[in-house]
Every structure is written in C-alpha cells, then in structure tokens.
C-alpha cells in the first residue's frame, strides 16, 4: 500500500511534464526514504533522475518498496486536469494507481500499472569541471536564440564566463553569461571546458522544467554529459543528464 | 523477474566475442572489422551479419558491447522501424556520447530483412542515412541478405556470413550450460537435442530449458515432450507427408508449419496425387474431389475476403486428401513440380503480348477487353481463315502490332 498526498497538484503537473519530456514509460520507486525515478529516453541520449523526499509531501505512507510503472502520456493528460488549489493524492493498491484531484469536487482517476522491464540504472560517475547556476528563464531564452541558426550548441566555460555558441551556414549566435553582468548566479571553473549538446533535447527539457524551478544548476566537462538540476521547492530534485554530441 | 526465470538463451549469452560458439571464419572477419573501428579507421562503417536463425549473429554484438564496455543501442524486429522511429530512437544516439557512462556505443538493427517497405516507410533509407552519419559501428543482421530491397545496404556494409552451427558446437554449449545449472544429462540426450535443433543454437538451448524445467536429470525418454521441431520443410516433404499420411490428423499437421504456402501446396498435390494413388481410381477420385473443394474454398475466400474459409480449405487439401477411400499401400514416388506452373511461366511472355495487343484493339474500338475477346475477335478469326490478308489488315487497323498478329490470332 502506498499513499502520497501532495498539497499542490499544479506543481506535480510540472514535474510530471518534465519527466514526460524525456520518457514515455517508466517506473517510480516508492521507498521509505522517498520517491525516486530514474530513466533513459528510448534513444538512450538523456537520463532523468527525480528524487522527492518524504518531507515535501503532506502525507507519505510507504510500507514496503513499491514500483509504480506508468505511461507518461496518460499521466500528463490526467495532471492537466488539475486546477490551482487542488490537492493531489496518489494511491497504489493491487494493480492500479489511483490519482485523486481534490478541490471543490473530488475527482478520482484510476490508471492501470505497467510492468516495465529493465534493469536499475547505476548512477554514472562523472567528473565535472564546471558548475554554474542561473535563472532557468535566462537559459531558456539563450536556447531560443540559438535555435534560430543551429540544432546544436557549444557550451564553453573559461575564466568566470559561460558561453553558448550556435553556428551553422545560417549564421552564428553567441550568448555570454557572466557573474559581473548578473546573468550568472554562481560559477566555478576548475578547468576550462567545452562540449556540444543537441538543442532538441535541451529545449524539451528546459521548456518543461523551468516551471519546476526558477533556478537551474549546470555541470559539465569537456566532451562529457551535461547535468541540469532543478530544485523542487521544499526539497527534492529533478535532474537531467544529456549526452554530448561527438563530432 | 527472478534470475531463475530468465531464459537461458539470455542468461548464458556469451560475454566475450571469443565465447560465441562456432563460426570461426565469421568471427575472424567480424573482429577485424571491429578492430578497424577501435583503431579509428573503419574499413566500412556498418557490417551486415547474415545467416540462419540461432547461429550467433545477435549474440556476437551483445558480446562486443560487454567486452568493450560499449553501450548497446538496439532496434528490434518487434519495434516499428519507419523512418520516424529510426530517427527518434537511433539518430541522436548515433552522434552523442554515452550518458550512462559507457566507453562507446554499438548500434544493432536486428533482422533488417524484416523491414517492410510499406509499414516501415522510409526505414531502409533511414538506415542508409544512419550508417552515413553514425559515429559508432552499426551492425545489421538478416536471414536473407540477397533480398533485392537490401541491395543498397549491401553496398555500404561489410558482409559477414554466419553458418548453421555444427552438431558438435551445439552439444558443447549445451554441456557447459548443464554443468552450470547442475543438471545431469547423457551426452546422447544432448546430441539428440542438437540433432533436432538442426544447427539452431537458440532452439537447442530453449529445448534444453524446457526439458530441464523442475528436474535435475534428463533421460532420453523425456525427449518425447518436445516433439519434432516444426521446421521449414521442403515442398517435397510436405507433399509426402500429406499423401502418405497414416491418419488424416497426420496430414493435417503440415498446416502447422510456420510458412506453408497453401496455394503452392494445392498445385503440388493436384500434380502428384495420381502418381501416389494409382492404380486405385477410387482414391484418386476422392482426393481430387477434396482438392476441388479446397480450391472452391480458396477462391471464395480470396474473392469475398472471407478468411474464415481458410481453415476449411486447409483441412480439405490435407486431411481431406488423406482420407480418400481405398488408398494403395505406401510406395516411394518421386514427385514432380506442378506442370501447370511450368506451363504458365513458359507462356508468360505470350500471354503478355496477347494482353497488350487486345488492350490496344479494345481501346480503339471503345469496348472492354473481354467484349473484344468474346464478341469481336472470333469473327476476325473466321475472316482470317477465309482470307488471311484481310484478317491481318483488320487487326493492324485496330492497332495491333505486326509482330503480335500471330499471338492474337492463335490465342
């Protein structure tokens, strides 16, 4: 038996949409330590990693570890029905997930649980040399600019600056983030680094996840995956790893 | 899923290329190709591994991924493999590093000969694009690499043939699995399993697992549960089974073959019933009676899309034939290829000419081809019999080419 109560259904909607940007089907794992989900996209280019500790929930009751396999297409549709002020109750019993949106009326959605095969993904051990923090809106805007000319961007960190460069036959777009101009909130460059990432995935991730958190933390290293972390209010993290392009 | 329930074909998949059973020559060629990738200068960007099922094509790719710590990007026969699907699933992956921390990647597209040009629209072209732009080795597998639609792929791939495994190789693998599972099993039994699998290691391992379920030793007597593996038999075998079946049920068993071409079977039976059942006229009559009914069912099925009739047609042409009265005792007969098909293929060119000529003439007369054939051509033929020049002249005026005249007048 699993019973989770979350005070604001709308916020969950954004988290679910953030997950749905990457995966079609995946299993939440509910443990006494918290709710987790780690999954790769079908093409194994991006990984999403969600952790929600019991403290962010109004009620968190997990007797034994349980797998909650869901189709995100279906779950997103349900969450879109959430109105502001609705409370979210998720319950698992038998072979069903019951999602209750409790507002003026109590609306109950029952979804079948999916049996999703696949081994546990290990935490990749990566040595990042650059860490930065900025407003997710700033990052999103920069991506929109880059999208005008190219389908991939080069992230480059040197000194106290982070550069996003998009280049193609159509032209070149360069965005400079820096501490001094205030577009960066923090930056730590252990070693200068640069790597290329596909805009399609970056955009899919950021255009959904910016609603989860105003602030995004980036970590990467030369020709290594890019890690994007969005902190959920009250604890909990929504984290993405995106593989670099190889030239 | 607990480890015990894992199919042994998965559980004992080779972890190193070296451990893949048999096919030494293919392995050598494959390793040379992989090494050219490791050195960074691939001879060809993709390899096409071909051969019968269960001979290690897929296993060698799994082993490669394990051995080099590469991430395996896989698109199976069960996935949709249209252009969009391939682009979404594999394209971005083929040009990015690994997110899960692997040292590299290898891309496997299984059973490319199963890609349907219609349902998987653009799939083959997408594979060509993928090979062109991929930063990692691409491996394709196929049972039949000579399918014409695979031709463009053949040109860009290193072709590596995998052969049916020898019985010795199969037995060796079965023995090592038995040892690891703690099962006692006579060599005789393993050799019978291997025999039955006919060089398909996957089938052999599956059979072994079926037999071993819930016991620790296997004897020859246990083998009977397997039954004969429904293997693709040649048409000669199928015809022999039907015509010499001891019971109607036995004849019916051929309908369970994985790829029975029943229309072909009908032709083959029609051709050969006489040889097998002479001198019993009663048997021949009964058999043809059943075949004619089967033919009626088949044509009705196709004309009206009544697929429910298929089972009647199948039973009639197998069990129906085998239950003919007064069948003569068994004798060995050499079966012939259906004369009808032979004739049709020989006449193909002539029929083609006839059809073309008739179509032209019919169009010039503003009538349908069948009207032309039934209501006009007979008169022209009569005229031709009396006055050759006049007949030819008439036809030529209708647009029939001089070289086709003879065909039209005879047909």
Verbal overview:
The complex is a heterodimer of chains A (247) and B (411). Chain A is of the alpha+beta class. Chain A folds into 2 domains: 2-112, Proliferating Cell Nuclear Antigen (Box); 130-242, Box (Proliferating Cell Nuclear Antigen). In chain A, 17% of the residues lie in helices and 46% in strands. Chain A has helices at 9-20, 72-79, 136-147, 199-209; strands at 2-6, 25-31, 34-40, 46-52, 59-62, 66-71, 87-93, 96-102, 106-112, 130-135, 152-158, 161-168, 171-178, 186-189, 193-198, 215-220, 226-231, 237-242. Chain A has a 9-stranded antiparallel sheet with strand order 6-2-3-4-18-17-16-10-14. Chain A has a 5-stranded antiparallel sheet with strand order 5-1-7-8-9, with helices on one face. A 4-stranded antiparallel sheet of chain A has the order 13-12-11-15. In chain A, a hairpin with a 2-residue loop joins strand 11 (152-158) and strand 12 (161-168). In chain A, helix 1 runs antiparallel to helix 2 (72-79), helix 1 (9-20) packs antiparallel against helix 4 and helix 3 packs antiparallel against helix 4. Chain A is elongated, with a radius of gyration of 19 Å. By secondary structure, chain B is an alpha/beta fold. Chain B folds into 4 domains: 11-161, Rossmann fold (3-Layer(aba) Sandwich); 167-225, Helicase, Ruva Protein, domain 3 (Orthogonal Bundle), CATH 1.10.8; 235-337; 340-410, no CATH class. In chain B, the strands form 2 sheets. Chain B has a 5-stranded parallel sheet, sandwiched between helices. A two-stranded parallel ribbon of chain B has the order 6-7. In chain B, helix 4 runs parallel beside helix 5 (123-133) and helix 7 (167-181) packs across helix 8 (187-197). Chain B is flat and about 85 Å long. The interface between A and B is medium-sized, with 25 and 17 residues.
């Amino acid at each position: 038996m699993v019973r989770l109560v979350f005070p604001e259904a709308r916020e969950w909607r954004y988290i679910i949409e953030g997950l749905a940007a990457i995966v079609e089907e995946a299993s939440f794992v509910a443990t006494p330590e918290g709710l987790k989900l780690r999954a790769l996209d079908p093409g194994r280019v991006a990984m999403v990693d969600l952790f929600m500790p019991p403290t962010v929930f109004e009620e968190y009751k997990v007797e034994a570890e349980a797998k909650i396999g869901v189709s995100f297409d279906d779950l997103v549709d349900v969450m879109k029905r959430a109105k502001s002020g609705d409370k979210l109750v998720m319950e698992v019993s038998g072979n069903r997930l019951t999602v209750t949106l409790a507002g003026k009326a109590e609306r109950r959605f029952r979804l079948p649980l999916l049996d999703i095969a696949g081994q546990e993904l290990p935490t990749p051990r990566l040595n990042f040399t650059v860490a930065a923090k900025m407003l997710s809106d700033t990052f999103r805007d920069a991506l929109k600019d880059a999208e005008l000319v190219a389908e991939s961007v080069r992230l480059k960190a040197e000194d106290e600056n982070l550069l996003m460069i998009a280049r193609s036959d159509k032209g070149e777009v360069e965005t400079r983030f820096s501490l001094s101009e205030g577009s960066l909130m923090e930056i730590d460059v252990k070693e200068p680094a640069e790597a290329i990432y596909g805009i399609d995935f970056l955009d899919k991730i950021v255009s959904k996840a910016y609603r989860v958190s105003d602030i995004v933390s980036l970590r990467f290293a030369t020709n290594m995956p890019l890690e994007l972390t969005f902190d959920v209010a009250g604890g909990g993290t929504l984290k993405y790893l995106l593989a670099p392009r190889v030239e | 899923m607990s480890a015990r329930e894992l199919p042994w074909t998965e559980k004992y998949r080779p972890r190193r290329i070296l451990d893949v059973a048999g096919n030494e020559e293919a392995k050598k060629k494959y390793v040379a190709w992989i090494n050219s990738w490791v050195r960074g200068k691939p001879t060809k960007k993709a390899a096409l591994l071909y051969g019968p099922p269960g001979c290690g094509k897929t296993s060698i790719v799994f082993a490669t991924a394990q051995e080099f710590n590469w991430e395996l990007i896989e698109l199976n026969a069960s996935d949709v493999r249209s252009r969009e699907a391939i682009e979404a699933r594999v394209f971005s992956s083929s040009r990015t590093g690994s997110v899960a921390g692997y040292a590299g990647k290898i891309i496997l597209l299984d059973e490319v000969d199963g890609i349907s040009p219609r349902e998987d629209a653009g799939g083959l072209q997408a594979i060509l694009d993928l090979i062109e732009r991929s930063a990692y080795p691409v491996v394709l597998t196929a049972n039949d690499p000579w399918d014409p639609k695979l031709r463009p792929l053949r040109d860009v791939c290193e072709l590596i043939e995998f052969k049916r495994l020898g019985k010795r190789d199969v037995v060796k693998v079965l023995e090592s699995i038995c040892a690891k599972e703690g099962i006692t099993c006579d060599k005789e039994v393993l050799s019978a399993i291997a025999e039955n699998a006919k060089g398909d290691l996957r089938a052999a391992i599956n059979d072994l697992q079926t037999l071993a379920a819930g016991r620790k030793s296997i004897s020859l007597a246990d083998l009977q549960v397997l039954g004969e593996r429904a293997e693709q038999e040649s048409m000669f075998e199928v015809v022999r089974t039907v015509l010499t079946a001891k019971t109607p049920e036995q004849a019916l068993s051929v309908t369970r073959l994985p790829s029975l071409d029943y229309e072909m079977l009908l032709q083959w039976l029609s051709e050969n019933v006489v040889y097998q059942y002479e001198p019993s006229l009663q048997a021949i009559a009964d058999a043809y009676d059943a075949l004619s009914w089967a033919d009626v069912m088949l044509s009705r099925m196709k004309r009206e899309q009544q697929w429910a009739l298929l089972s009647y047609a199948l039973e009639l042409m197998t069990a129906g034939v085998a239950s003919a009265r007064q069948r003569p005792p068994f004798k060995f007969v050499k079966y012939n290829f259906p004369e009808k098909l032979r004739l049709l293929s020989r006449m193909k060119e002539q029929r083609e000419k006839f059809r073309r000529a008739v179509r032209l003439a019919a169009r010039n007369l503003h009538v349908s081809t069948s009207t032309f054939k039934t209501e006009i051509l007979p008169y022209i033929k009569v005229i031709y019999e009396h006055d050759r020049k006049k007949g030819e002249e008439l036809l030529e005026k209708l647009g029939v080419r001089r070289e086709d005249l003879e065909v039209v007048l005879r047909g």
